[in-house]
Amino acid sequence: MATLILVRHGRSTANTAGLLAGWTPGVALDERGAEQAAALPGRLAAVPLAAVVSSPLQRCEETLAPLLAARPELALHTDERIGECHYGDWSNRKLSELSDEPLMKIVQQHPSAAAFPGGESMRAMQARAVDAVREWNARIEEEHGSDAVFLMCSHGDIIKSLVADALGMHLDLFQRIHVDPCSVTAVRYTPTRPFLLRLGDTGDFGSLAPRPARAPDAAAAAAADTETFESATEDGGNAVVGGGAGAA
Q1: What strand order describes the sheet that includes 76-78?
Q2: Which end of the chain, N or C, is less surrounded by CB atoms within 10 Å?
Q3: Could you give the angle at the alpha carbon of 184 between the alpha carbons of 25 and 27, nearest 5°?
Q4: How many CB atoms lie within 10 A of CB 65?
Q5: Is residue 156 a contact partner of residue 242, using CB atoms and an 8 Å limit?
Q6: Residues 227, 234: contact at Cβ < 8 Å?
Q7: Burial class of residue 123 (count of CB atoms within 10 Å of its CB; 0-12, 13-18, 19+)
Q8: How far apart are CA 114 and CA 239, in angstroms?
Q9: pTM metric for this prediction
Q10: What 8-state DSSP symbol labels residue 87?
Q11: Which secondary structure element, helix H or strand E, spans residue 61, and what is its range?
Q12: Could you say which DSSP state residue 135 is in?
C-alpha cells in the first residue's frame, strides 16, 4: 500500500499565544510558521507525491501553499476528517487556564475516556482520522500503485493519534508522542501492518540540547504558557493538548 507523509501545520498565532485553537476561524501562521512553510518544498524535493490532502483549517492551507506553488501539477484535496479535534467549549481558551480543569487529567492520563464539553471525544477524533487515512490509502494505491507516496497536512493531536494507530498503541498512550510544527512523520502501510518511518522530523535537533537552569517561578511560568514541548513537560510530564508551539 501507499506511504503517507503527515505534516503538522507550521507554527500558528494560537500556538505562540498559548491558545487551544481547535476549529476557531482566522488562526493563521505566525512569522516563524510562514518560514517553516516556505522551507517545506525544499525538504520534500526528492519525494514524488501522488496527492496532497489537507485539513480545511487556514493554518494547514497556508502551510501547503508554498509546496503547491512549487508543484503546480498537484491538486489540493480537502478532508474534514483530518481537521483538528473539536474541542467545543474549550476552543480558543488559554491552555494555562485549562490546566486546572478536572477534565485535563483525563485528557492526559486516560484520553480514550475524554470528551470535550460541546465538542467530540478523543476516541471519535482518532476514529475519523484513521478512517480517512485508510480510505485515502486505498484510493491512492488504486490510482497510482502500491509504491505511491501522498501527503496529508493536519494537526498535532490528529497526527499523534494516527501514529498511535500505526504502532498498535492504545489511545491512552498517545500523549507520549510529540510532533513539532511543520514536522514530517511518515508511515508506510502494507497489507498486514504499518511501519513508522519518521516521527516528528524537523531536521533541527537544537531542542534536544540541555536547557539552561531557571528559577522555579520562571520555570512555572514557562510551563503555564506551554510555548515549547520541553517547558510544557517539565512539570508533571503532561503533554500539550493541541500540540503546542514546539521549539522556536
Answers
A1: 76-78, 51-54, 149-154, 3-8, 184-189, 194-201
A2: C
A3: 10
A4: 16
A5: yes
A6: no
A7: middle
A8: 15
A9: 0.88
A10: -
A11: helix 58-70
A12: H
**Which of 25, 29, 84 has its CA nearest to residue 241?**
84
**Contact (Cβ atoms closer than 8 angstroms) between residue 120 and residue 91:** no
Query: What are the grid coordinates assigned to 82, written together?
Result: 483530518
Where do we find the cell 500539550? 240
Q: Quick one: pLDDT at residue 238?
A: 84
CB 98 within 8 A of CB 241: yes
Residue appearing with cell numbers 490546566:
99
Q: Tell me how far apart the alpha carbons of residues 195 and 160 are, in angstroms, rounded to a whole number.
A: 15
pLDDT digits (tens, 9 = 90+) for 79-94: 999 999 999 999 999 9
- Going by DSSP bridges, is the β-strand pair 19-20/93-94 parallel, antiparallel, or unpaired? antiparallel
Distance, in Å, from the CA atom of 16 to the CA atom of 11, rounded to the nearest integer, reads 8
Give the whole-angstrom CA distance, residue 99 versus residue 212: 25
239 neighbors 28 (Cβ within 8 angstroms): no
Is residue 106 within 8 A of residue 28, CB to CB? The reply is no
Coil/strand/helix, residue 73: coil
State the cell numbers at 140. 491512492
